[in-house]
Amino acid sequence: MVIILDNSASEQQVEDVVKHLEDYGFQVHKSVGVERTILGAIGVQPDFDVRKVKILNGVSDVYRVTVPFKLASRSFKEDNTVVKIKDVEIGKDKITLMAGPCSIESEEQIFKLAEVVSKSGSQILRGGAFKPRSSPYSFQGLGEEGLKYIRQAADEFNLLVITEVMEIKYIDLIYKYTDIFQIGARNMQNFPLLKELGKTDKPIMLKRGLSAQIEEWLMSAEYILSEGNKDVLLCERGIRTFEKYTRNTFDLSAVPVVHKKSHLPVIADPSHATGLRDQVPPMARAAVAAGADGLMIEIHHDPEHAFSDGPQALLPNDYINLVQELKMIAKAIGRDI
Q1: Tens digits of per-residue pLDDT, 179-228?
Q2: What CATH code is carried by the domain that includes residue 221?
Q3: 271 with 313: CB under 8 angstroms?
Q4: Is the distance from CB of 127 to CB of 145 less than 8 angstroms?
């Protein structure tokens, strides 16, 4: 349930309400908004009488949350979540751009592409050091060596790093090198991994599962939020449908739907959604127009010889030109890049 506190409630009254809720067996999460403070009381108690809470000093109103994703819902937090990392704020008026190769292939490659990302005005360098591939015989990534390369390249060009974590045992290792943990589509419902990442203090970008419904996606985010990590980004990367022309079907309607249901920022990944280089720019433009808070786009200086996902990677100059186009679209809807 959600407990709305009086604007005039003292710190002591808030603490007393929290203690009462915990004594009743609830797990309590606090959301401090611009105009008011809200408490989320999580716990399965179907017959609990909410009047026990309504009478407490400092409480303005109490109501049950009917959606299963309590902490991710607009009911719990009306204001948009803004994820702040150094001088980058994801979820505000400025749209965040993430770009880089699918896989970190060498020191030379990631430095070359980091320079392109910086030149374009993007803020975050992406690249995989541990790659979940459909075939066990495909390139699986450079591991820690790749993490060192991407961290050094990002620092050289004043960029942030986002990279994927696939297993619990790699969390501590990747933590040393990344600014944002990425959870791939195949791990969206790897609940033990989500819970462990929820205990960390770094932002997490959760990609939508291959055939996941929006509610299932938000419930996966709930696993992270319930462990205490509030800096969660949601990434729409296309879903599997009967259509075979593109790699996936890019569900752009998910952007406004999630914004209505949840306070969490939404990132769009047109590269994985389409799998085709010529489809990435129009879908990126559409994602900005649809209200995405950020884009993740794959680039490569020699895509024909890329170790993975070459067909969907933009050439450096094409990406730089695309960013200029995106700026015009963002301006038209009152945003910036």
Answers
A1: 999 999 999 999 999 999 999 999 999 999 999 999 999 999 999 999 99
A2: 3.20.20.70
A3: yes
A4: no
